[in-house]
Amino acid sequence: MKPKDDQLFSRVSAWQGLEPWGRVLDAGTGNHSLSWILRLKTEQWTAVTGDPSRSAEMRQTFGGQLRGGDRLVVGNWSDPSFLQGERYDVVIADYLVGAIEGFAPYYQDQILGRLKPLVGRALYVVGLEPFDDHAQDEGGRLILEIARLRDACILLAGHRCYREFPLQWMLRHLDAAGFEVERHEAVPILYGSSFIQSQLGVARRKLPLMADRALARAMELHIDALERRALEFINRCGRIRFGSDYVIKATPR
Ligand SMILES: C[S@@+](CC[C@H](N)C(=O)[O-])C[C@H]1O[C@@H](n2cnc3c(N)ncnc32)[C@H](O)[C@@H]1O
Questions:
Q1: CA–centroid distance, residue 28 to ligand 1 (Å)
Q2: Cα torsion 94, 99, 169, 243: sign
Q3: Taking a C-beta distance cutoff of 8 angstroms, is the pair 77, 115 a contact?
Q4: Does the beta carbon of 32 lie inside 6 Å of ligand 1?
Q5: Does any ligand 1 atom lie closer than 6 A to the CB of residue 48?
Q6: From first to last of its 253 residues, what are the pLDDT tens digits of the chain?
Q7: In the chain, where are the structural domains located?
Q8: Is any atom of ligand 1 closer than 6 Å to the C-beta of 30?
Q9: Candidates 3.20.20.10, 3.30.2290.10, 3.40.50.150, 3.30.390.50; correct CATH number of 1-129+164-188+244-253?
Q10: Is the pTM of this model over 0.85?
Q11: CB contact at 8 A, 175 and 181
């Protein structure tokens, strides 16, 4: 899940302060993080994805903005030789840990230690706090319904869902991996219509992959009905405040 929110990167920029960015590694790249990195004064950047089709799309979008040393690379952090021996002043792990399940299942407890030798001065981790099982109000219940329906469609298509980890889990694992946590902050999320449409869009794209066609048709009707209900709620009540993201700055100990 990727709520588009520059509140998070504005914190990273503020915490970096006057320290130069130098060489930057976007350890789990996407349009949002790379667009932000392109606006920074970096010496060089490397952006990593585990997904060749994402890389091809990003090359189309950003290809014209790569300088001599900038790199968009496809690889998997579970491969010990991938980017071995490289070092970056700043490493960004923007919603990387939540996505690991889709690329290297059960590797989440290893990823921070794997990134450590690549971190010269600072590691910034951005993540989504897993949702509570219950919400206190109608808006929160709609967000939970959307997330559950999306995940149900992903599973019925035979794919793996993202698996988010709480801030406290991340702080424990940063410590265990040899990082000093300098600061961290939970940032409340405001969900709008673009979130509803993008997440139900993920659900819709899984429908053709479901083996049971009657079930797929029933799911489609359910997606349409939930979308109408959620968009109507937002028109009436405004954006939905539910859950939080977090930002962490850590340095190698
Ligand atoms: C949810 S996206 C991150 C969001 C992204 N920063 C953005 O701006 O949209 C997760 C990224 O991490 C990458 N990723 C996840 N697990 C990986 C792994 N084991 N090795 C390499 N890349 C991985 C995915 O391919 C994807 O590029």
A1: 4
A2: positive
A3: yes
A4: yes
A5: yes
A6: 444 448 999 999 999 999 999 999 999 999 999 999 999 999 999 999 999 999 999 999 999 999 999 999 999 999 999 999 999 999 999 999 999 999 999 999 999 999 999 999 999 999 999 999 999 999 999 999 999 999 999 999 999 999 999 999 999 999 999 999 999 999 999 999 999 999 999 999 999 999 999 999 999 999 999 999 999 999 999 999 999 999 999 999 9
A7: 1-129+164-188+244-253, 133-160+193-237
A8: yes
A9: 3.40.50.150
A10: yes
A11: yes
